[in-house]
Write a structure and sequence with these properties.
alpha/beta; ten-stranded mixed beta sheet; six-stranded mixed beta sheet; about 35% helix
Length: about 450
């Protein structure tokens, strides 16, 4: 699968674009900028490739494809749990309320932040659950809802889902789907980067307790891939496939191995692998660790909780990099900017940056089936089934099948492959002990 390359390799003098490959490139316009970058600077890391493919300002998957969901018939390249059943978002909303009560002591104000909100379905359904808890809704009205979304197209879809109306400030809106006791719309604000959200909260001298939701967010953050060789660990890189330039093949890129340790290898693998570790290939995501660390420090500053739900594993061995297009897995090198690219989340690795922050408590990871069961999904589905059966048998069947897909642990279900992990930290002056209940994790 991999071949070695020389950092000082002679760059091809041929034009990166040949006439016979132009038709393939027309459908994947990001191939040319990637090829040009490799010709100019040499092979790129998998992390660099993921970053370019997903967030290139003109052709990136999350920037270019973000315009398509304005068509309400657009269903994307994959289906997520919130799109399968309203129950998923409702239970995450209940989780927010439960953590506000147990960890924050029903604080006077609270903020809810969603990272990577997709079509806004999860937050819409969570707000539906919030409406059953007036005290929480009033506290949230003081802190507001914040959405971290890079794509302006997706942000508009989210605003439509939440029935938002613009306010006087540029990024501030009011959601019509949730009002407080005085019938005031819920304030909602968008941030195009997590860093810009952190810059925003630095101005919050009150230190508002915050609850973070990150569903299928970490899996899209860049990973570095390393492979064991006789000479030690070498980083997997991406190069132009010279043999296929000029051919009609759609694949113009290939994996290669660095011929010496890279700077990323020294930094990313430090403390990650033990001398007894027998893994042949590993993935490491410094970007994910940074996000978890930043959230942990924010929780320690003001108190709050965070919930991560993603597909992944509790170990680092092997490579899980995949492309997803039209609801099918594809070669991640085949459609940069056109297909989504993800990798499994190593939850065990992400415990470390959280546990390094004083006061932060980690729960999980648990399977999605375990988490949803602990949150009472069976009771909620039973109540909905009773109502649906009174109206329409087909509606009841759809509801039950959606429930099965969320919790099933077989190959077709999401119950096992998806994992959940939470962080929590009491506000200053209070402490969490082992007796403090953490919703969804049986503790």
């Amino acid at each position: 699968m991999f071949s070695s390359f020389s950092h000082s390799r002679a760059l091809s003098t041929a034009s990166p674009t040949s006439e016979s490959s132009q038709s393939a490139q027309a459908n994947v316009p990001l191939l040319e900028p990637i090829r040009r970058r490799i010709y100019d600077h040499g092979p790129m890391t998998v992390a660099e490739y993921m970053s370019v493919a997903l967030t290139h300002p003109e052709y990136g998957y999350y920037t270019e494809s973000g315009l398509k969901p304005n068509d309400e018939s657009f269903m994307g390249d994959f289906v997520t749990s919130p799109e399968i059943s309203q129950v998923f978002g409702e239970l995450l909303g209940v989780w927010c309320v439960a953590m506000w009560q147990s960890v924050l002591g029903s604080s006077e104000r609270v903020r809810v932040v969603e990272l990577g909100p997709g079509r806004g379905t999860l937050m819409r359904d969570a707000m539906g659950a919030f409406s059953s808890f007036p005290a929480f809704t009033n506290a949230l009205h003081k802190g507001g809802v914040h959405m971290v979304e890079k794509s302006e197209g997706n942000a508009q879809v989210q605003r439509n889902a939440l029935e938002c109306e613009p306010q006087s400030e540029g990024s501030a809106y009011a959601a019509g789907v949730l009002s407080n006791a005085s019938n005031s719309p819920m304030p909602v604000q968008w941030h195009d980067e997590f860093r810009s959200y952190l810059d925003f909260v630095e101005q919050d001298v009150a230190g508002t307790p915050t609850i973070f939701l990150a569903h299928e967010y970490l899996d899209a953050l860049p990973v570095h891939v390393f492979r064991r060789t006789d000479a030690g660990w070498r980083e997997v890189m991406i190069d132009v496939d010279e043999e296929k330039v000029g051919e009609s093949s759609d694949i113009h890129l290939k994996y290669v191995l660095s011929n010496r340790p890279t700077a990323a290898a020294a930094a990313a693998l430090s403390g990650t692998l033990s001398s007894e570790d027998k893994a042949e290939t590993v993935e490491v995501s410094p970007a994910s660790a940074t996000v978890v660390g930043d959230i942990s420090r924010e929780l320690a500053r003001s108190g709050g909780a965070a919930l991560f739900v993603d597909y992944g594993a509790q170990g680092k061995e092997g490579t899980s990099l995949r492309g997803i297009k039209d609801h099918k897995f594809v070669d991640p090198l085949k459609y940069p900017g056109v297909a989504d690219i993800t990798a499994d989340v190593d939850f065990n690795a992400l415990k470390r940056p959280a546990e390094a922050v004083k006061g932060v408590r980690v729960a999980g990871p648990a399977t999605q089936a375990e988490f949803l069961s602990n949150m009472g999904i069976e009771y909620r589905v039973a109540a909905l089934l009773k109502s649906a059966e009174a109206r329409d048998e087909d509606e009841a069947l759809d509801l039950f099948q959606a429930y099965q897909r969320l919790v099933s642990t077989d190959d077709e279900g999401m119950g096992k492959v998806y994992q959940a992990m939470s962080l929590s930290c009491a506000p200053e002056g209070k402490e969490l002990d082992d007796a403090t209940p953490l919703a969804g994790f049986g503790v």
